[in-house]
Amino acid sequence: MITVSGISKSFKVARRSSGFGSAFKSLFRREYTEVAALSDVTFSIGPGEIVGYIGPNGAGKSTTIKVMSGILVPDGGTCSIMGYTPWLDRVQYVRNIGVVFGQRSQLWWDVPVIDSFELLRDIYDVTEKEYRSNLELLTDTLDLGDLLRTPVRQLSLGQRMRCEIAASLLHGPGILFLDEPTIGLDAVSKIAVRKFISAINKEKGVTVILTTHDMSDIEALAQRILLIGKGKLLYDGDLAAMRAKYGAAEGGETGGGSAIEEALVNMYKEYEIS
Amino acid sequence: MRACYSVFRLKLATGFQYRSAALAGIATQFFWGFIIIMVYQAFYSQPLADPPISLTQIVTYIWLQQAFLAFIALWFRDNELFQLITTGNIAYELCRPSGLYGLWYAKLLAQRLSSAVLRCFPILAVALLLPSPYRLTLPPDPATALLFLLVLILGLFILVAVSMLIYISTFITMSAAGSLLMFGVAGEFLAGMIVPVPLMPSWLQTIVYALPFRLAADFPFRVYSGHIPTDEALATIPIQLLWLAALVWIGRFAMGKALRRVVIQGG
Predict the structure, then answer these.
(1) Chain B: residue whose CA lies nearest to A120
(2) N or C: which end of chain A has fewer CB within 10 A?
(3) Under a CB-based contact definition with an 8 Å cutoff, are residues B112 and B122 in contact?
(4) In a domain, A67, yes or no
(5) Residues in B 159-188 with any Cβ partner in A closer than 8 A
């Protein structure tokens, strides 16, 4: 369903030291460094899977999501998702996917949530019948109810995030990319979001790719994890196997974190990416 | 198309919420209109050999400028769009199954339309009742009024297409200030917003006539007062359409280029 092979992407970053002198110097000659955000990333994901995509900050998780959702054009490599190359067939392709960026908003700030939903219905050209049934399902499972008629600026972060997730699923996509959907949420909202993700995966067979720093998200949802560090894919496999291998290695010595987080820290150490 | 219409409708409805902004705008525009008219009054009180445009027509020109400011001012902008680009929120817009150009065009059009609708009627109504020489005169005949509306709307389409270029340039410069200032100052001068085009020296008029900016402001306003006769106005409509097509084409092309190499800012 999703095949990514040999994807690379680098960004040009202007760097200079602090101070007026170097600021002045950079007027004439600017030093750029190429930062490889992704180098030669290859994996494939089957239909109906929930995959946790993890790695430290700046590892390239969001960049991968952006490439897979057709927003960024990679420097090299191929990617085929449901038969489309995301950045080439962007317009036809994006009808089949839903994307949630936990740190951004897609809802219109000044108007009630339902107005944004209806706009998305028209943008995705969803039939009224399908829209109604999707909206009903989302309202029930995410407990949106009264939120729909509230202006977005008056929602709490947890309420807004539930609406954001609903907004990404109104057109009934087969694949859902979630980029840190639980960032900044309290325990109740976090659990609501997790329950919802596993429900749509089971009931509608939606393939989910999830990035997060919260290992309990991964533990609750994913059977399989992909670990990325410094732009390279380091581990691709079963969550249980990873825990068995790294969790036990230095057992006993806990720094107050949960077992799974310990395992992750050990894994980062082993791959020298922390 | 349905998507563009939907964006247009939602933005229009949102725009009508901003009542106090409209009231403040109306007050400013009256103040500004009076000052400018007084300047021209003083200017016309000195014997002029043969003024290229009468004081009544100038007064009309100025009131229309004030009433339809949202249709013609290039500095009138949507900060939301600039923020989308510079903060990286554009990521969401890019995963929609429709061209960005159409959606943004519809949004900007609705914004200008809602703003102008809120402001133009009170300004026009009061300006029509003022004592002369401040009074706004009616167009010479109903046909001219209809023609004015047609060229005004076409002019609005041209202006939105021009303003799209400001937003597109932000993809490259990452700051809206420069393009806004450049487009704002040059575009408004060339549209006759600062000095009415008929009062410009003839060499400057040649330049102004070769550019699209006047088609959104100067041209409709002079059609209204009859300073531009009907046959000349009808002959200019194809030029408006041509400019509109050219500007939209340039905008789409530039946007396509910019999006190919877009960098989503932030994590």
Answers:
(1) B3
(2) C
(3) no
(4) yes
(5) none
Q: Give the total number of structural domains in chain A.
A: 1
What single string gives the DSSP state of each residue in A138-198?
Answer: HHHHHT-GGGGGSBGGGS-HHHHHHHHHHHTTTT--SEEEEESTTTT--HHHHHHHHHHHH
State the best of B80, B95, B98, B257 to mutate against chain A, taking most chain A CBs within 10 Å: B95
CA angle, residues B154, B160, B166, in degrees to nearest 5: 150
Say if A251 falls within a structural domain: yes
Query: What is the C-alpha separation between B142 and B160, in angstroms, rounded?
Result: 27
| ipTM topping 0.90 | no
* A10 beta partners: A36
Q: What is the DSSP string of B34-78?
A: HHHHHHHHHHHHS--SS-SS-HHHHHHHHHHHHHTHHHH-TT---
- Which tokens belong to B58? 């100038």
Domain that residue A218 falls in: 47-106+168-270
What CATH number corresponds to the domain at position A246? 3.40.50.300
